[in-house]
Amino acid sequence: MSLKASQIHEILNSKRDEFAAFSQATGRQLQNYRAVLESFCAEGEPELQARSAQHPANLGARLLEPLSEAKMGIMPFGCIWQNREQSLAWVKQRLTGITTFAVDGSQIYPGKDLSIPIALVQIGWFENPHLPTGEYEKDVAIDVMTPTDLRAGHSGDPVDRQVNMRRFQMETERLMDYIRTHPQATDRLVFLDGSLVATFAQLFEEKVRRFYVECLLDLLEASQTYRVPLVAYIDTSYAQDLAVMLRTLYDLPESQSIHDAQLVNKFMKWGDRTAMLRCQRSGILADYENQADQIAFTYLKTNRDSYPARLEMPLWMVEAGLTERVIDWVRGEVIIGSGYPYVIETADQTAVLQADDRQNFFRVLQDWADEADLNLRFSRKMISKVRRR
């Protein structure tokens, strides 16, 4: 039975006051934080440094660029185009001969259709040299996870989590392989679809948390060692590093509803970015060893009607003076992709497993199990589907 719109509308009306109260409270907090941001940006560099020095750790963020050329902490882009053709001409100037690379993944989780736990993980990648010839590379790699891989039967160890971990591992390993194959390649940009700061793993037990951290540490160290630019792209970010910095420096009341992208969005036009900051988030970065203070970030306005995206990169790129060049490459990818980096979007399309892929996987699995004389039982529902297809 479909949802009854009338009932939803009635419930929403009955709770209108709660939504209104939340919105008003958030609006007041946001106004307060923006006023403090204005004060922060108006202070001179010596004053800011002195104020920040009073908080040596867990400040949330620290400035990496002076604010002398910024207004409200925003570095203006400045380019204005009359049509898409003009913007694509700009992209051609910036990206021709620059190779971009991204990886994404997909999976088939274990289910009740099989008598034993088994899963499939697929990653896909896209490499685009941005040459007039139009050449590119798209390919995939797969892994089949056995009951041993899935740790099936281990109490309290969800099998779906093992699949997610394997996918993450395959994605980051492929990025590292690419980086190692192209040392010193400052004409390339490797994209990570997601954050370099594994805050999402903080709620996991130590072993799982450490797994994700080590994957990202290896990736950060590969980029630093081989000097290949790396950007983590977070399209919708709820990070609060800048907000925490303002709250700490100016003794603001804590707010879980104010996030950085929301805070700076009002002052940004398409293509603008915030001044570069060093991430000093409390929590997970304590596990990052020598990379704990080596992640820089900025917010880039990539869509006129939504909050800016968050870009994270290894600090060595900022110190090497690559910031402006690399962010222009990101702008170019966003223009080609009409609001989202084309290289990430294409990697996702390459990696995604469709419903037909699932059926094909089970058909191959069934044929192989018969040949290997394995007692692998399928549900009657699955057998029916496979036969029909």
Keywords for this structure?
alpha+beta, 11 strands, 2 domains, 389 residues, 16% strand, globular, 44% helix, two-stranded antiparallel ribbon, 13 helices, nine-stranded mixed beta sheet
Strand ordering within the main sheet: 1-9-10-11-7-6-3-4-5
Q: Span between N and C termini?
A: 28 Å
Number of distinct beta strands? 11
- Spell the H/E element sequence: HHHEEHEEEHEHEHHEEEEHHHHH
Quaternary status: single chain
Structural class: alpha+beta
Give the percentage of residues in beta strands.
Answer: 15-25%
Using only CA atoms, what is the Rg? 24 Å
Mean pLDDT, as a whole number? Answer: 89
Uncertain runs are none
Main beta-sheet strand count, sense and barrel state:
9 strands, mixed
- The helix content is 40-55%
Shape: globular
Count, helices: 13
Q: How many domain regions?
A: 2
Note down, in words, how this protein is organized:
With 389 residues, the protein is of the alpha+beta class. It folds into two domains: 11-351, no CATH class; 355-388, no CATH class. It contains 13 helices and eleven strands. It has helices spanning 5-14, 16-42, 45-53, 84-95, 159-181, 206-226, 241-250, 260-265, 315-319, 323-336, 342-351, 355-371, 380-388; strands spanning 60-63, 74-75, 99-108, 119-128, 137-145, 188-193, 230-234, 273-274, 277-280, 295-300, 309-314. It has a nine-stranded mixed beta sheet, with helices on both faces. The protein has a two-stranded antiparallel sheet with strand order 2-8. β4 and β5 (137-145) form a beta hairpin. α2 packs across α7 (241-250) and α4 crosses α10 (323-336). The two termini are 28 Å apart. This is DNA double-strand break repair nuclease NurA. Pfam families: NurA. Residues 98-353 form the NurA domain.
